[in-house]
Amino acid sequence: MTTARMMTRQAGRPDAAGARAGTARRRRSRLGDGEPERARWPRVDGAPHPRVRSLLARGYAGFTDATKPSRLVIPASAAVPLVLKIRDSAERPPAFVHGVHRSYAAMIGACAPTYLEAWLAPLGAYALLGLPMDELEGQVVDLGDVVGAAAGRRLTERVREAPTWGDRFALMDEFLLRRAAEGPRPSPEVGWAWRRLVITGGRIPISRLAGEVGWSHKRLIAGFRRQIGLPPKTAARLVRFDQLLARLDERRPPRWDQLAAEGGYSDQAHLVRDFREFTGAAPTAFMARVLASPQAAPAPSWTRTRTSGRPPQP
User: Fold this and answer.
1) Regarding beta strands 35-36 and 72-74, do their DSSP bridges make them parallel or antiparallel, or are they unpaired?
2) Which domain holds residue 12?
3) What is the pTM of this model?
């Protein structure tokens, strides 16, 4: 793999030099108008294979030309969307991944008329894609540049030829199971630290996490960047925000002051600042758009993760 400069950054994030990026062709995520991706409807839901489920942030989803909206804003997330176009479109490659992003990204151009989507969970993306995740941060990357041109092309062709959504989801299972068997394993230390962030709602001090796994603060940051794509402090903020979104699913209408207190925000203004940074919209505007959908996308699976056992021994 060769060294390349990061070309695509998410909204509000300054450009920076990237590390190794292979021969990947980088596509720019440009800003534009759009709606929250969670508001898309209708969609076809698919249950992943049990051995794949823990590597995904959501189940599979299929979208068609009946799905609205078609211009999307992708929120900040530690998850990595993987998209396969059943029918092609002018913007973005036929199959691509969108690396972790610490601010929202508004995608220029409409979505493909028909496409399949899988959101890879933190650590799951590292195991499935086999790359240091900080190399993909904030970028839209052709899947063939990640898994190999022949493998990416064959998966896309097979999914496009499949007659039903069930067949397409089964092909995605087959692909991800093979990648999981061949990919790297996240370190026990980063895995433990990530689960601790989740169970504490992102409130545990990073220094305490480092102490629990027997690593220095600097080593923990490096491990998170490589295997999750973000430093632990940023990952903690996104965990807290994802859990806020999960609670919003249960509250109609929401009480923002109460949600701020429950979620570990210093006050309601703090919550509003994170909402704007991570979604590009004020909380009330975001919720009005999402709740207007009869079938809003679920919150990430790690909002329900539980930590058990003991930390890895240094």
Assistant:
1) parallel
2) 1-314
3) 0.85
